[in-house]
Design goal:
Blueprint lengths: L2 H4 L6 E4 H13 L5 E5 L9 H6 L4 E3 L4 H13 L3 E7 H4 L4 H10 L5 E5 L17 H6 L5 E3 L4 H13 L4 E4 L4 E3 L14 E4 L4 E5 L4 H15 L3 E5 L2 E3 L3 H8 L5 E8 L4 H11 L6 E6 L9 H7 L4 H12 L2
Helix pairs in contact: 2-8, 4-6, 9-13
Amino acid sequence: MQLDKIEEKDLKMGKANQEVFSETLQELAETDSSIIVVTSDSRGSGKLVPFGQKFPSQIVEVGIAEQNLVGVAAGLASAGKKTFAVSPACFLSARALEQIKNDVCYSDNPVVLVGISSGVSYGALGTTHHSLHDFAALRSINNITIVAPADNFETEQAVRLAVKHDKPLYMRFGKKAMPFLDEENKSFEFGKGRLVRKGNDLTIIATGETVYPAWLAAKKLEDKHGVKAAVVSMHTIKPLDVKLLEDLAENGKPIVTVEEHMVNGGLGEACASYLFQKGYSNPFKIVGIPDEYTVTGSQVEIFNHYGISREGLYETCKGLLDI
């Protein structure tokens, strides 16, 4: 059973983040003709058909040619256009890595690289279509901000900030409808994590679509054991919110990180590396996709298999708390 069918009574469900991305961008383009979308045969999967119909002179289709996509986007950005390069995250961050490194980051062109259908959103299409490497690859490149919004609120705010951002930026979105995680916390800023559930007994730091199962696990911990777990949406992987990270680690309580990414080189290793170098010794666990041939299935089935789920994270947290 899908998690978003289990707990609908607890959180208001919204749309897929990539739908919100497209709708917000279309709204902004109404009054800003400098916004240009470049796609690699992705206007359908990127929910950009309405954008193209309404603003035909503000969309460029390069076909299945991701390296050209990034090169064209960099050229447009260098000419003053607010350019969004939209392509499946798996191909954008691998096939076009050389262009991202040199044409965008090294050349300091403020392209917004948009990885759609990210993580394991493509499900049964398998490893060729999974983007479990993008955080690791792009974190190793200088001069790029990396953002993975958790819900519709974060997505809308991220797009609005992206239009004003004057540096290279990578955003990743998934295909699954997401809930509104905390309608009271309306603060969003690149580089600043967002606390979506308060607690002092344990901290779960998650990013992107994994924040939802983290929230569900924290709720179950409180319902079953009275454990109050803080849940943080660390939507910006780079630069990491190290001030918040230190604040969370100060009490010495366990920390769990969760990501729709390989455990190598992503959010968990970024957090662990920083805290270890600063001398913190909190019990620490990274939850993500292990270094193995990924199982085949839907996103929910893959999440369940690797413990990126309410039940899996609940058990992980119980183990760290010894309850």
